[in-house]
Write a structure and sequence with these properties.
Elements (H helix, E strand, L loop, with lengths): L1 H22 L1 H28 L7 E7 L15 E5 L6 H9 L5 E7 L5 E7 L6 H20 L4 H8 L13 H35 L3 H7 L2 H33 L1 H4 L3 H7 L3 H28 L4 H24 L6 H6 L6 H11 L4 H29 L9 H10 L4
Parallel strand pairs: 1-2, 1-3
Antiparallel strand pairs: 3-4
Length: 415
Amino acid sequence: MKANSSFRQFSVVLNHEYKNLIKSKFFRGITLVFLLGIILLLTLPPMLQKSMSAPQTAKQSLLVVDETGQFAQADFSSLNGYNIIFGQVNQSFDQLKRLIVDGEYDDVVIISRDSQGKISLNFLSKRVLDSLPQNLQTLIAAANIKNIMVQNNVPDTAIAQALTSPDLSITETSGSMTNGFLPTYIMIMVLFYSMIVYGAMVASGVAQEKSSRAMELLITSAKTQNLILGKIIGIGLAGLTQLAIWLLGMLIFFQINFSYWKDNAIVSGLFGMPASKIAIMLLFYLMGFFMYAALYGAIGSLVSRMEDIQMLQLPIVFLLMIGLFVTIFGMIQPGSTMLIVFSFIPIYTPMSMFARINTSDVVWWQVALSMVLSFATVVLFAWAAAKIYRVGVLMYGKLPSLKEIIRAIRDDKNV
């Protein structure tokens, strides 16, 4: 009977917190703004590419002025989309510029050689440059090497072998920049955002109830554990709902624009994260949220004014910032001692251990140990938060000192 009554109290608080938060204008506004941002981020680049890559009626013209007279036989076929025209050498630089300005040619390249035999390229264009100058530089360099080999009677087979580009294959490891670092960085920022924002919501909710003086009645009719845990889990579920909406929007518009994003290593790496790592992240997210939400709930019960929350939450934010910076800089060297140590400190485990898992190979017992330590810390923080919550919500006036809080908790026998 007591168990049913306790669960009923817990479920009532949970439903109240969850429904109130998801129905609030602030929550819906933030959810909608971020969702629109995600949609634009995944949709605008493909749309811009389509508008800029409209079919052209004619190829662009490239005037080649070869002052060396040695590159007429060079292979320009790799310059797709360009008509190659060789021009007169006796034209001045100003005359060549005028050809661009008057629209007779889209681009002009002047090939020259100095007294020491070094080849130089002077590229003229009135539009925003793409990869054409670099492609020309590579093409002319290869043609120059071929000319030198021919002049030195190098056999054709040897020339072909020397100028053939090697086959290239790329295998990204878990610790690579695109497949490991950047997706992990994004996930860690989501964790950081969640702990700060939703934790602050817990503190504000407790402080608001305390300021209404309804807490005296509430705390005498319900168990402290049910009140604080119901509030934390209710707000946590609202946060998960918000993240789920954003994630669903990301998945839908990633699939809609898949043809554009499939070759983007960063985006495809983020969406191609294995289900096992997503499950681990979710587990660390929940434990990290409950740890910090318990701390925020405790400080919310200690203040009598909403303004005091900002001051009391600074130490928590400072702790989070330390973990964030250590984790981000530690990802550059996932095997660094500092990152390994931080991954076993429960308040930093959600960020640091997840970073290690996603950017390096971590032995299973270290992951298991970090989870056990984190879970034990969640239980400890929840117990401490319930104690502080019960005595804190009945304290009004100036902020109690740490000594006063400890004495009040020691005297309280109800939790």
